[in-house]
Design brief:
By secondary structure, this protein is of the alpha/beta class. It has helices at about 10-20, 50-70, 85-90, 130-140, 185-195, 210-215, 250-260, 305-320, 335-355, 370-375, 380, 390-395, 400-425, 455-465, 490-505, and strands at about 75-80, 100-105, 140-145, 165, 170, 200-205, 220, 240-245, 295, 325-330, 430-435, 465-475, 480-485. Helix 4 links the parallel strand 2 and strand 3. The longest helix has 26 residues, at about 400-425. The N and C termini lie far apart (about 55 Å).
């Protein structure tokens, strides 16, 4: 159920009493002594002076309330902001003109709690904006609300179900509500696909923007690490974490990236970005694939013939647009995955401790050990479906020398020895592969069930390179995406290539049905004479 009470002051005090509702079919219901609102406060009746954006915002809020709540609701949105149309009105003359943006609930916004989906952070009202959100507001973007996510961005347990959090319940896929929305930016992907906002912000450590974007049939862009500030974002890894846009077109994603990007003295890597574009949308409308050499990662397609067919159709579209395709057979050094995992475990303990220690307020967790203890004390609600083995492993990962060696090797293997090597040896500008297969059935008992042989996103995530996914078609009504990966800091070029592919795409994309999955209807075979 989408929380839509004016300032949400009662959120924290109500969670303890109602937390038992945070199961697979429901979420905690806030109970306070005021009438239930039909729309968020700030969504005033539209009058003669109302603008188009205000009408769109009210329509998006109404659609959220219609399709996000109830036993078959998407559970994509945790909270709607209290002053949506007022924000829109104030932003009319700014570059984004009051376009609405949903924000993943591990990113701080001043008007709403930031919970990472956990009851442990139910009281986390910092009343501050992350720098990326301050940038968004200055550009005329409107914070529509907060999206549900895989709790703690899917780093709590190795047998988790993507899209589930104790606070928000299980995110459902708008194309088939019994199917998963991937994670950890599950709510952001599902909400954009459902039309709950113009766009959304997700975060990624490894696949958490690109997978839910692909699975939900939207554009998702994981920028080079450093393009967007991570200050006031619930962390996993200082090496791999980044935020990025999720939208219905590459141009919209570029517009949102332009708004949220920027240097931040509190996040040193953001000050190292060379030749930072003033506008990531510049040139996208005129971009072309004519003469562009593109590496095709043949070994990362998996064994599904239907996915191969969709990918081949996307490749044919690029060839018709003038691209020169170069087949590549390559398997990365598996040390990269081993060492990256060690990096995540070490940095999770350190970075989470730094973040929690910075929070205002009393009775807040201050370390990863505090979170582990909270989960143990609240196991019935927090650990009904899966445990916290990754939290426990991270708490015990303390060897700094081993971490530093692992970090150096992982980045080297993923960057110089994988992406850089493939681009140079094959004289190509980009690498392409399917992002993921189609959405799987959500299963809280057994956890996720996705095909790990599909996709090439891990090297880009580990090395901090740009990775764009664009819808390329569907399998039985379930979306699948095309990944476009480039060299570090080539974010603008990757977006241009994605926009050019988007215009060349011949596939007919499905529309969300907000129902359980059913096999796609196919033409009947012609009758044969006896």
């Amino acid at each position: 159920m989408t929380i839509r009470i004016l300032p949400l002051l009662a959120l924290a005090s109500s969670l303890t009493a109602c937390a038992t509702g945070a199961q697979e079919t429901s979420r905690p219901t806030v109970r306070i002594d005021v009438p239930r609102m039909e729309l968020p406060s700030g969504a005033e009746p539209l009058g003669p002076d109302s603008g188009i954006r205000e009408g769109q915002a009210v329509g998006q809020a109404a659609k959220t309330l219609k399709y996000d709540d109830g036993p078959n609701g998407l559970n994509a949105v945790i909270a709607l902001a209290p002053d949506i149309t007022a924000q829109v009105r104030a932003a009319r003359r700014l570059p984004l003109g009051g376009r609405t943006v949903l924000v993943k609930d591990n990113i701080e916004t001043r008007e709403l709690p930031t919970t990472a989906g956990s009851l442990a952070l139910a009281n986390n009202r910092t009343e501050r904006d992350a720098p990326m959100i301050a940038n968004l507001r200055r550009a005329g973007g409107v914070v529509m609300g907060k999206t549900n996510l895989s709790e703690w961005a899917n780093i709590r347990d190795s047998n988790s179900t993507s899209g589930w959090s104790a606070l928000g319940g299980l995110v459902r896929n708008p194309y088939a509500i019994d199917r998963n929305s991937c994670g950890s930016s599950s709510g952001s992907g599902a909400a954009v696909a459902a039309g709950f906002a113009w766009a959304a912000i997700g975060t990624e450590t490894n696949g958490s923007i690109t997978c839910p974007a692909s699975i939900n049939g939207v554009v998702g862009f994981k920028p080079s690490v450093g393009v967007v500030s991570r200050t006031h974002v619930v962390p996993i890894s200082s090496t791999q974490d980044t935020a990025g846009p999720m939208a219905r077109s590459v141009m919209d994603a570029a517009m949102l990236l332009t708004a949220i990007a920027g240097a931040d003295p509190a996040d040193a890597v953001t000050t190292t970005v060379p030749n930072r574009p003033a506008d990531y949308g510049a040139g996208l409308a005129e971009s072309s694939l004519e003469g562009v050499r593109i590496g095709v990662m043949r070994g990362q397609v998996g064994d599904r013939q239907d996915l191969k067919d969709a990918f081949d159709a996307a490749l044919a579209d690029m060839e018709r647009a003038g691209a020169i395709l170069v087949d590549i057979e390559f398997e990365p050094n598996t040390e990269m995955y081993r060492d990256s995992f060690q990096v995540l475990m070490f940095e999770l303990r350190e970075e989470m401790g730094k973040y929690l220690s910075s929070l205002p307020g009393e009775d807040m967790p201050r370390s990863l050990a505090d979170l582990i203890a909270f989960n143990e004390a609240n196991a019935e609600t927090e650990m009904r479906w899966f445990g916290q083995d990754l939290f426990i492993q991270a708490e015990g990962t303390t060897d700094r020398k081993a971490y530093e060696a692992a970090r150096k090797n992982a980045i080297h293997l993923a960057g110089e020895r994988t992406i850089d090597l493939l681009l140079a040896e094959n004289d190509v500008s980009f690498l392409v592969a399917p992002t993921r297969g189609p959405a799987w059935v959500s299963d809280l008992i057994n956890g996720d069930n996705f095909n790990g042989s599909i996709g090439f996103g891990a090297p880009a995530a580990i090395a901090g390179y740009p990775h764009l996914t664009v819808p390329m078609g569907a399998i039985e009504g379930l979306p699948v995406g095309l990944s476009i990966i480039g060299a570090k800091w080539d974010d603008h070029a990757v977006l241009k290539a994605g926009a050019a592919y988007e215009r060349a795409r011949s596939a007919v994309l499905p529309q969300p049905r907000f129902e359980r999955w059913q096999p796609a209807l196919r033409p009947s075979a012609p009758a044969t004479a006896n």
